[in-house]
Amino acid sequence: MSTPPPESPDPSSVTKPLDPGFYIVATPIGNLGDVTMRAVDVLRSVSLIACEDTRVTGKLLKYCQVSTRMQRYDDHASSAVRERLIDIARREPVALVSDAGTPLVSDPGYRLVREAREAGVCVTTIPGPCAAIAGLTLSGLPNDRFLFAGFLPVKEKARKETLEELGAVEATLIFYETGPRLLRSLEAIAELYATREVSVARELTKMHEECRSGSASELIEHYTAHPPKGEIVLMIGPPVPSDEIVDCDALLQEALTEMSVSKAAGKVAKATGLDRQTLYTRAVEIKSQ
Length: 289
Ligand code: SAM
What we know:
The chain is an alpha/beta fold. It is built from eleven helices and ten strands.
């Protein structure tokens, strides 16, 4: 007798009542179509949705045809508000969402989740969109090791110190950024890491999505001419080992006697397998010496 084929998932399972506890639900970062089926199901089935802004989450709920009650929550809420939410989650399922993407990732939720776990309340996650990961996957930068560091400090000195501290880490660095602050951050990066490849991923999943890579000074040139709008993920490629830069100097010098900076960088990149952008930046330096 042949074994019967495995049963397909029970479609009614999506409407089974949820256990009490917190459900951390990731939501789209721009394109509402990115909401997951499980997210919609959970948002529909919980008794309450704790959210950053009821107007923002209200739009998503309307799109998903969900009418669950919402309550505003952020990490500035008093501990009494958190205690009340934790008390509800002991008895009923409660969803936690932020305005966009994965809650707790540069978004509210940390205190609530920590205190809920300490109180023995069940916490589970419904994963989905996250701008940091979406940006990294688009950038083409090395992704075997990456370090997400949230927003860079606003003040110049603190921003520089943070970049210096993180710059030694052998990983791609990921930051959240805003249009008005992008140029100042790129200027700090150009000063400290002229030879590293930088990527700017903007308006991910939206109509004007773009991902632009180059040296920080090339990106400064571009964004000075085209002031950046919308939401941004800023990424810096890992440090280039200094011996690689020195080793390629002779090849670049030779190539520069016969061709333009861009062609020389391309030729040496092909010959060595090193990053073309880094070689381009180095070729510019050699030429100006
Ligand atoms: N929790 C969210 C997540 O999982 O991505 C991030 C929230 S944080 C308050 C908002 C920042 O995320 C924005 O300032 C921007 O840097 C980044 N971001 C959010 N949506 C984005 C998008 N569609 N494209 C690029 N960056 C985005």
